[in-house]
Specification:
The protein is α/β, with parallel strands linked by helices. The protein folds into two domains: about 65-270, Aspartate Aminotransferase, domain 2; about 270-410, Aspartate Aminotransferase, domain 1 (Alpha-Beta Complex), CATH 3.90.1150.10. Helices cover about 40% and strands about 15% of the residues. The strands form two sheets. The chain has a seven-stranded mixed β-sheet, with helices on both faces. The protein has a five-stranded mixed β-sheet with strand order 8-9-12-11-10. α3 (about 70-85) runs parallel beside α10, α4 crosses α9 (about 240-250) and α13 (about 330-340) crosses α15 (about 390-415). The longest helix has 22 residues, at about 390-415. The chain is globular, with a radius of gyration of 22 Å. It starts with 7 loop residues before the first helix and ends with a helix. The chain binds pyridoxal-5'-phosphate.
Length: about 425
């Protein structure tokens, strides 16, 4: 039985360890069930022949931690199995995974076409850092082949060839769903890579490589680790696309530390349990909030009225656990709402086992111009819930009383 034939829950529960004969560890002496943390920065060699053999990958082994280490290898194999990829590389943040992927595949004088409304940090990377290094970005208004074809056609002549498309399978905070099959076909026809940030969907909600995407990236900081104690990221895909990312990450010093890799593997062991519960809670909350006084709009791809609902049923195997909604009272109502919450925590991240609320206009999208915030869906009344694993009734009760407080101010009774 190989890891490939097992269900994702089985792969996760065993932290990716192979089954039976395929298990690579020696049978004697008995091996620890939990993997040790290998903190060594460097490995020692018997002679020149051994150093050559390891360097040239004729013999398994590690040399120097920046090039790779056992804990990263375990995590990489696990995430590759989840994504249905042949290879993965672990980086010291989601941004590091994105920058290593782009730097490996795009060079000065070339262009990236990206969806408008990406994670704020990714937009800042493209606009401020890569632009400075001579890589241009052209924004497509929607994560659709039509909008990307339009954006490709509008690249100025000095923009050079379009090398990569960059989208999020479920975008932040608009929760738009990318048309991955259509975008993959367009990318292929233009000789560009389709790079998909799958952080919000997780491999349990979407497997972008199945739809012809070239590289999948993750912020492991979020659902994969799930316990708010790691910053990390991964890129996964076929070796032809991932080997260059690995070399770039090693050269730029972007690799993940052993402790972070170990903690991420530990977190992943329960991803299927956490995410199933989170998605059930999120669907119920989205329904509960829809049409309520004080809430002008609810964004959740599992609601039939969501513009991407039909696409979501084709591309996603679950609707995710993020729910965005807009308060009619704008920023002052958001302030009252957040201050009134008793259970739900105000924290600018997502994917933890507890429910958090976040205000994109002042956190992830803070650096964007006002009109770009609105274009990204991060308008003044928008709050984003990362729904956790708590008991649903407790979450609904907290949301209800905080919405009351937000409304109180609207009716002129002033903030508490
Ligand atoms: C958080 C996040 C990132 C960046 O990841 P870090 O681990 O914070 O570097 C990238 N993309 C998405 C969708 C994210 O949510």
């Amino acid at each position: 039985m190989t890891t490939k034939t097992l269900g994702l829950g089985t792969i996760l529960a065993r932290a990716g360890r192979r089954v039976g004969a395929a298990e690579s560890l020696p049978a004697e002496p008995p091996q620890p069930l939990a993997e040790p943390i290998a903190l060594a920065s460097v490995y020692r060699f018997a002679d020149l022949e051994q150093v050559d053999a390891v360097w040239e990958k004729r013999q398994p082994g590690y040399i120097y931690r920046r090039f790779g280490h056992p804990n990263a290898a375990t995590l990489e194999a696990l995430v590759a199995a989840l994504e249905g990829a042949e290879a993965a590389v672990a980086c010291n943040s989601g941004m590091a995974a994105i920058v290593a992927t782009l730097a490996a595949h795009v060079k000065a004088g070339e262009t990236i076409v990206a969806q408008r409304g990406l994670y704020g940090g990714t937009e800042t990377l493209l606009r401020e850092q890569l632009a400075r290094l001579g890589v241009a970005t052209c924004m497509a208004d929607e994560p659709t082949p039509e909008a990307f074809a339009w954006a490709c056609a509008s690249v100025p002549p000095d923009g050079g060839p379009v090398r990569a498309f960059l989208v999020e399978s479920i975008a932040n905070p608009s929760l738009k769903v990318a048309d991955l099959p259509g975008l993959a076909a367009l990318a292929r026809s233009r000789g560009a890579l389709l790079i998909v940030d799958n952080t919000f969907a997780t491999p349990l909600g979407c497997r972008p490589l199945q739809f012809g995407s070239s590289v999948v990236v993750h912020s492991a900081t979020k659902y994969l680790n799930g316990h708010s104690d790691v910053v990390g990221g991964l890129a996964a895909g076929p070796p032809e696309h991932i080997d260059p990312v690995r070399r770039t990450a090693a050269a730029m010093g972007l690799g993940m530390s052993p402790l972070d890799a170990w903690l991420t593997v530990r977190g992943l062991k329960t991803l299927h349990l956490r995410f199933a519960r989170q998605q059930t809670n999120a669907a119920a909350i989205a329904k509960h909030l829809s049409g309520r006084a004080g809430v002008s709009k609810v964004l959740y791809p599992g609601l039939p009225e969501h513009p991407d609902y039909a696409l979501a049923t084709r591309v996603l195997s679950g609707f995710g656990a993020m729910v965005s909604f807009e308060l009619t009272g704008g920023a002052p109502a958001v302030d009252r709402f957040i201050r009134a919450l008793r259970l739900i925590t105000f924290a600018p991240s997502l994917g933890e086992s507890e429910t958090t609320v976040m205000y994109p206009a002042r956190t992830s999208h803070r650096d964007l111009a006002e009109q770009d915030k609105v274009a990204a869906g991060a308008g003044p009344g928008l709050v984003r819930l990362s729904v956790g694993t708590e008991d649903l009734d407790d979450l609904l009760a907290d949301l209800d009383q905080a919405l009351e407080a937000a409304l109180d101010g609207d009716s002129g009774r002033g903030p508490r």
